[in-house]
Design goal:
It contains six helices and eight strands. By secondary structure, the protein is α+β, with helices and mostly antiparallel strands. The longest helix is centred in the last third of the chain and has 12 residues, at 186-197. The protein is globular and about 50 Å long.
Length: 212
């Protein structure tokens, strides 16, 4: 039986977190339910001419392992292949002017049972591994909203994914406003951090940051 592929229209924002303990307290007070904390190692695949990146698409292989911490239990181990692309146009609506606040993509995911075989298959299709990045992710569920707290080599970020009304309501309750919304990818955030440090972008790994 072929693996089940999930497909959805993803609407999300990032928020920069300066006080990890405080944001965890605020999430708990709101009633957010933790799904555990994991360590992620992500690899982006692309064609030799960077065709995916240039067309606004993404092909990512993610491996995650349990990583209890911050008084949160370890989450489940998994390996997931994700493809993202620009979403199909929506009919004009009253929320169109606010679209710039959010990052919106069409996302397809498939769980991977044999990572080594997958890597070989992707290379056989002409894809090459490129940018690698890692982070610790604590996931939460709050009503219809999916929340991820990411600890990365370039800082901590909160991702809110769901409908715009739920995103706005929760961001406001956590002490943020639309001017705090970030639509950038982790590659963009990492590249900006490298420019500030006068470093050449390579891989966003914790060990790489320690060696600087």
């Amino acid at each position: 039986m072929p693996a089940k592929i999930s497909s959805k229209r993803e609407i999300e924002i990032k928020l920069r977190v300066t006080d990890l303990a405080d944001i965890l307290r605020r999430l708990h007070k709101l009633g957010a339910v933790s799904r555990g904390r994991v360590h992620e190692l992500n690899t982006l695949f692309d064609t030799p001419d960077s065709g995916f990146r240039r067309s606004g698409r993404l092909l990512r292989f993610r491996q995650q392992t349990p990583a209890p911490g911050n008084n949160v239990r370890g989450g489940p181990a998994s390996a997931i292949l994700t493809a993202k692309a620009p979403p199909l146009p929506r009919p004009a609506s009253s929320t169109a002017t606010k679209k710039r606040w959010y990052k919106e993509v069409q996302e397809n995911e498939e769980r991977v049972k044999n990572p080594r075989r997958l890597s070989q298959a992707l290379k056989g299709l002409g894809f090459r591994p490129g940018f690698r990045y890692e982070k610790y992710r604590t996931s939460f569920h709050l009503n219809s909203l999916h929340i991820d707290l990411d600890e990365t080599p370039v800082g901590a970020f909160l991702e809110l994914e769901g409908m715009p009304t739920a995103i706005n309501r929760t961001a406001r309750a956590l002490g943020f406003s639309p001017k705090d919304y970030i639509r950038a990818t982790y590659w963009t955030l990492y590249a900006a951090d490298c420019r500030r440090r006068h470093r050449k972008p390579q891989k966003m790994l914790f060990e790489a940051q320690k060696s600087r």
